[in-house]
Amino acid sequence: MPTRRIITTGLAAGAASLLSSCGTIVYPDRVNQKTRGKLDPIVIILDGVGLFFFIIPGVVAFAVDFTTGAIYLPPGKEAGDKERTIFDDLSMHTLPSGKLTPRNIEHVVNQAAGVCIDLARDEVQVAQLNHLDQFWVAHARLSGNGMLAAH
User: Fold this and answer.
1) Could you tell me the residue range of the domain that residue 134 belongs to?
2) Residues 99 and 84 in one domain
3) 7-41 pLDDT, tens per residue?
4) Does 29 reside within a domain?
5) Most exposed residue of 23, 45, 47, 76, measured as fewest CB within 10 angstroms of its CB?
């Protein structure tokens, strides 16, 4: 049993150190860029914070960011210039506040997923969720299973 704990701890530490390379994660377009500009102070600060709190992951973060080139600004860019980040990829399509209508939802789903839906059809069932964690419970209830599927 102690061997399993050591292996699990080692894998967790390895994953944490690989995930700690801030520039590589935040600026995916910079990875393996052909020409490199100046060092990016934001990435240096983020990696430095990792180095300050966790020595090994911080060193790995600097090593990964230097190796991939993510620590360098693209040529012609200055610190603070608008640049695509991972957060742009994670942005969600949102509806205007107070205008949650079936037509607006259909439009956003069409834009985001490229799927045309019709919420006015009889077989469409709707449930209001206060949090995404409630999805599977509502799904089970609406599909008539009555039991929560293991997901």
Assistant:
1) 92-143
2) no
3) 777 666 655 555 556 777 777 778 888 788 888 88
4) yes
5) 76
| Beta-carbon contacts of residue 115 (< 8 Å; ≥ 6 apart) | 109
3-state SS track over 84-99: CCHHHHHCCCCCCCCC
The domain total for the chain is 2
Count Cα atoms within 13 angstroms, Cβ side, for 118: 4
Distance (Å, whole) CA 58 – CA 6 = 22
Q: For residue 72, what are the β-bridge partners?
A: 39
The percent of the chain in helix, strand and coil, each rounded to the nearest 5, is 55, 0, 45
First-residue to last-residue Cα distance in the chain: 28
Q: Could you tell me if residue 151 is inside a domain?
A: no
